[in-house]
Structure formats: C-alpha cells, structure tokens
Amino acid sequence: MAFDIDMIKKVYANMTERVDAARDIVGKPLTLSEKILYSHLWDGKPTTAFTRGKDYVDFAPDRVACQDATAQMALLQFMQAGKPKVAVPTTVHCDHLIQAKDGAAADLKNANSTSSEVFNFLESVSNKYGIGFWKPGAGIIHQVVLENYAFPGGMMIGTDSHTVNAGGLGMVAIGVGGADAVDVMAGMAWELKFPKLIGVKLTGKLSGWTAPKDVILKVAEILTVKGGTGAIVEYFGPGATAMSCTGKGTICNMGAEIGATTSTFGYDESMERYLRATDREDVADAANKIKDYLTADAEVYANPEQYFDQVIEINLSELGPLLNGPFTPDLSTPVGKEMTEKATSNEWPLQVEWGLIGSCTNSSYEDLSRASSIAQQAIDKGLKMKAELGINPGSEQVRYTAERDGILGIFENLDAKIFTNACGPCIGQWARYSDPKNAPKNSIVHSFNRNFAKRADGNPNTHAFVASPELTAAIAVAGRLDFNPLTDKLINENGEEVMFDEPTGWELPPKGFEVKDNGYLEPVEDGSGVIINVNPDSERLELLEPFTPIGNSIKGAKLLIKAYGKCTTDHISMAGPWLRFRGHLDNIANNTLIGAVNAFNKKTNFVKNQLTGDYAGVPDTQREYKKAGILSVVVGDHNYGEGSSREHAAMQPRHLGVAAVIVKSFARIHETNLKKQGMLGLTFVNEADYDLIQEDDTFNFLDLNEFAPDKQLNVEVVHSDGSKDIISLNHTYNQAQIEWYNEGSALNLIKKQNA
Ligand code: MIC
Ligand code: SF4
C-alpha cells in the first residue's frame, strides 16, 4: 500500500550507473548529496558537471507530498494543468487544520465538522488524480512520510518547508511551493539551482541530556537563519552514525530554519533499523545491496574541506542542552546561569507557563519515550508540574504504540493534554486565549522548530523557546526557563530536595510498532468518474482564474509597504486563524502583509495610501490601488520570505496587483514562488539603496523590455519632492523563468504547452 518498492528498485538500478558516470564527469570523489542529485537528473545519465550555486538543473523527483494547508492551492493549480492523473507517487496529509483545545478526540471531531468542506475537497481530488490521502488525525506529514515513504538515496519534493525532515532517512527532500509540485505531478521536470554543499562533521557522541535537537540548535547558532541558503547540509562522522534515524530527522527538519535547501545523512545501520521497524524490510535489503552509493565516497569524509564549500565540526561530547529563542530559532542560550542573566537583562519572563512536545521536528517514538522518562521521574520523586504540558504525537502509529507501551499514560498522570496527531500549536492551531492580542507577557518552551512572534498562540507577548523534548519536559516540571537539570535541585511535595536523573528512552519500540487504523485512503484505480464540487459561494474554496501578465512596462507603480526587519511568510500571509482561507485566494488576500512592520512608522498593517494620503491596512490600501489600475511595489530587508513554503505569500500580492518585490535578499522558496506566479522578485545591487526608498515613492522600471538572464534591471524611483534616484537591481531569472513572467505565471505556460 504505502510505498512502491519497484519504483525504489528502479531508482537504485539507475543510481549505480549514474553515480559512476557523474564521478567520471566531475572528476573527483562525490558527496552523498551529489550522488543523489546526479542520479535524479531529468535527462537521465549525467553528461555535464554542474557549477554549484550557479547552474539551474532539471531534476526528476521520485515523490511529492502535500499537506492540507498548501495542498488546496497546489491541487487547485494542478486541476488547471489538464492532466488525468499525477505522474509520480503523491500523497496529501491532513494535519494543519486541526485546532488543539480540549484533547485529541474532541478536537478531531471539531476539525472534521468545521473543515469538512476542505477535507472532502482534498479527498475527492486525491481520489480523482491517483493521490494517496491521509485523513485528519493520521499524523503530521513529515512523520508519516518518514515512516512510510522516505528511502535512502531518494529525491522528493513537498509543499511544506519541513519536507527536509526526510533527510533523516538519507533522502534529498526539498520544500517547495505548490506550483513547483504541480510541475512534478504533471510529469514535467523540476528545476533547482544546483546547491552549494555544507559538510557538518559530528565527532564524539551524544549523551545524558544532550539530544539531536541540540545539534541543530547549535548549527542554527553558527549559521543563523540565512546561513544555509542555497546549500545542502550533509552530516557525517562518528557522531552521525551513532544517532537514531528519527534523531537525524530532527536535525534535517530544522535545516529549514537556517534556510538550507535540504539536509541529509549517509545510509547507516540506524536507518536500516528504522526501515525494518517500520515494515520496510525490502527497502532495507535493496539499500544494503548498494550501500556505497548511499553515502559519500570515503575520501570525501576523510578530507571534507576539499569537497564541501564550507565545513563545520561539532564535538557532540562537548555539546550541552540549549534553548533557542525567543522570536527567532537561531538565538541560542545554554541552559542554566547564562539564561538567568540573558532573560533578566532582556526582560524575558523566567516563569514558564507551557511545555509543548510534538510537531514534525520532535514527535517520534524515541522523542516521546525520552520525555516520558522525565515525566515518570517527576511522579516518582513527588514533583508537581509548575507549567502545563501538551503533547502532539507525530502519527497514529506513534500514538497507538506509545499508548500501548504506557508512555501516554505517564503524561496523563501529570495531567498533560494529549492533542491530535497533527501540527496543532506549532501552526497557531491552539485555542489558548480568547483574545490573544491582549494576552499577557509570558514564556513557553516547546520542541517545535519555529518560534516567530505570535506563531503558536497569536499572542505577540509570548516568548517561545525551542528545546529538545526531554528538556521541554524538565522545564515544564520546574516551571523556570533557566532550570538546568544537570545541576539544579527542585523541592518536591514533601519539601525534599530532588534532582532529575538523565533521560532514558527507546530508539524504537521494544515490542515493535503497532497501529489499528493508520488513516490512509488509497485512491481508486480509475478516477475519471470522480466529480469535484466547489461551491461558488464557498468562503473556503475558490477555483483559480489565470493571472494576466504584468508586462514589460511598469510605470507609476506605488510603494505599498517598505517592510522593516524580519519579514517571514508568517508576516506576509499569517497562519493560525487564516489557515481556513488557504483554498480561497481572494479571502486569504485580506491578510496580505498585515504582520509586516512599516519602516516609516514601525506599525503593522498601517500604511499610507498615496492616492488619498490616508493611513489604512495593507490589503485595503492595495485593493484601492488595484481599483485605480495602479501597480505597486513591496520593499524588504534580508531573507525576505523566510520560513514557510506557502505560495500564498506570493499569490496574494500577485492577486492584489503587486508587480515587484524588491529586497536585500530572499529566502529560496519564496523567491521561486514569486517567479512561478509571474511577478518580479528583485534584489538591491547596493543594499544601502533600501534607505533611499521613501514613503511616497513611485517606481518606473526603465529597461524591463530588455529583461534577460544575468542582466541587471534599473528602476527610477521618484520621490514626493520630485527628486529621483536610479536604483540597480539584480535578479536570478533564467530564460525559462522569464517566460513564466511573460506568460503571467508558470501555470499559464503549462496550460499553453498542454493545449
Ligand atoms: C509551517 O511550519 O510554517 C508550515 C505551516 O508547515 C508551512 C507550510 C504552510 O504555510 O502551510 C511550511 O513550513 O512550509
Ligand atoms: Fe506542521 Fe509545525 Fe511541522 Fe509546519 S513545522 S509541518 S506546522 S508541525
């Protein structure tokens, strides 16, 4: 049912031949990342060596995965492509639209009634086009993919930035926007700039309180939220092989937080154990036969500096538990005293109100078992929870097994809330407050990956810190952000001083995984008779209209907003309550850029309407420009569009009439999403030109009629006093992408080609 062993065997048969060919052409030993990339070329056997960070290359991924919040737009676009069936194995996972409130049973029931229209739509589209469908409650996409579909040496794309999680099982798995997924589902090549390669050598061994999570929290500190941009991070060394497969998944998962294209590990015994435990003996056997192809050539790991563009070394024996946050995942602080000082000087509340364990990053059996060992100690040592505790298991298989093995019971004994096998609080689906905007300042600790402002609970005053599941559990018991479980004592119910012992757990369930109903629905063989209904009055689903080309003469465009500081996809198209409109472009457009800070008044959703001089919300102002037939421009800082793969962050501005986004630098997925939707994503040649942009500016593009690869564009910026600046802009469009722009979108081009 779940995976296609014949497809995997075919990939492996190609791999041996293609990797050998690639090694000859490249003329040196290959990294694992290169082996996977070169064996997945659209044109088959490699004939050219590509330049990393420069050449655009066509690939042929083996699989596609979509989650409910992005699948709606991806499938609405796919429906326009005119194909009867998806060309490669594809799955849809319902995990983002389930709110955490009262606990799994009630919350799932509630989601099934409030989002039935969307779930039914996704189910029938999946059935029609031959897509595997994972029902609400089946689990979080990336855990389900790791358990069922990921395989060493494979290449997949997914409409979610944390698709990269599958690197834990030795894949090159990449997060993309829905329009990219449409290419692959429609049987076309998928294009990516050949990535740079960062090698991370892990020496020593994890022990005690240090977890795989701490490795990636450390890497995030070293590389920052944009340090991985355009690169694949390949982990190796004794510390890597000593780690569990799901632990490797955690590390790869948060590669999204450093902007990396993806991360991966070479095939090893931990992966073999995981494949066998998850009922994939045949995949393990097939992988064992070509082991050398599923890891780098030995010479590469012996002299990594010669083969990677950058090498980082981390000694796991010296690494301690970390807490990253608040508001950004790369701000790292070791547990204990240093946190006391930092929190005090920055006025981060030291008292912790919630500990949350789960999300695609850390919801494996091992994660739950290690956290439960801390919970059990709290019970045994007579400690009372100081903070509340919430748990989201990663999949029904993990949940069922953890319940059978008494793990969930331990948490329940501490009054923890067991939420649905879904994203829950990680994506703002958390009914924590009735009025989040006016909720009090507080701190929470979670095992998730993202901690942008307002993300989990909508409260701008929540300080969220990211940690391993075991540290999250310990901090939730202690109720203090600066609790150091290695050194600090706690006072129990009897007034005695007690200390935690080191966490313990099982890499894999000793009695094996078990599940009754995993929540999977296989599509019918022939879906041609399946009818898809979209109610024209629906507020949640809307069929798409093709975008009209912006054209090569942009004159008189107005500045919509100059965004100040961090502008993630959460700022551009907020999740949480807005997730309900993910299938309705016009409705979701009402949240466009409402989280972005206006550089001129430091307020959110408060910009000047240049036609009236009045200040109003961003979407309202933009709709006024649209009505007047005036295009607009968005200006931003570094790493604009960091975070999610949601193409809504590009489609909404496009829908409302924004022609160009001009920034200091982009996050990879977002930049591609802008291109796919037929708009301009440009960067300042001189970053300081950002400072020249004023509130009343008008933009005249001077040479868009000569739009060509590797050629700068120039724009005349007219200020309100009549003075002008000419600003030079870089772009990364190749000829094919310029065609997308000319046609109005990549999808328009597909339609034209299919017609
Ligand atoms: C996220 O973690 O932000 C999400 C929600 O999973 C997104 C996808 C989305 O916006 O639907 C992601 O990471 O790509
Ligand atoms: Fe879901 Fe959170 Fe993972 Fe995104 S990061 S897929 S919201 S669990």
Automatic annotation (TrEMBL):
Ranges where the Aconitase A/isopropylmalate dehydratase small subunit swivel domain occurs: 558-686
A Pfam match: Aconitase
Gene3D superfamilies in the cross-refs: Aconitase, Domain 2, Aconitase, domain 3, Aconitase, domain 4
Domain Aconitase/3-isopropylmalate dehydratase large subunit alpha/beta/alpha: 35-479
Pathway where it operates: Carbohydrate metabolism; tricarboxylic acid cycle; isocitrate from oxaloacetate: step 2/2
EC number in record: 4.2.1.3
Top-level class of the enzyme under EC nomenclature: lyase
Cofactors, names only: [4Fe-4S] cluster
Alphabetical UniProt keywords: Iron, Iron-sulfur, Lyase, Metal-binding, Transit peptide, Tricarboxylic acid cycle
PANTHER family linked to this entry: ACONITATE HYDRATASE B, ACONITATE HYDRATASE, MITOCHONDRIAL
Similarity section: Belongs to the aconitase/IPM isomerase family.
The protein's name: Aconitate hydratase A
Lineage per the UniProt record: Bacteria, Pseudomonadati, Bacteroidota, Flavobacteriia, Flavobacteriales
